[in-house]
Amino acid sequence: YHDFFTQFGKTRIYVRQQPPGHGVVAHRAIKAICERVGIKDLYAKCEGSLNMQHITKAFMLGLLRQKTHQVLADEKKLHLVEMRSENDYFPKVVASPSDGVVRTAAEIGHNEILDF
User: ∠99-90-88 over CA atoms, to 5°?
Assistant: First the structure.
């Protein structure tokens, strides 16, 4: 899965994957959810309102809205490349369109969001 941003009410949460062995560094509500769900390595930054119900709702909505790398590649018809700091930002292809058809640079709109 991927890093994500989510919000509910005035609560904003930025969530990033972490390498194995890092642990869960987050608000205590998010730590409890991760413990129950089985997420072992994650960093989450909460901003805005720290209302417990809003944090819980925002985090759960963020988890539910996630898509797999393959689904993202199929939707965009592009290769999905990941550049992480633990790999010295070396690009790694994590998914390609399943039908094998990849859009060219001319087919990609000038205002299309490609960073997700």
Answer: 150
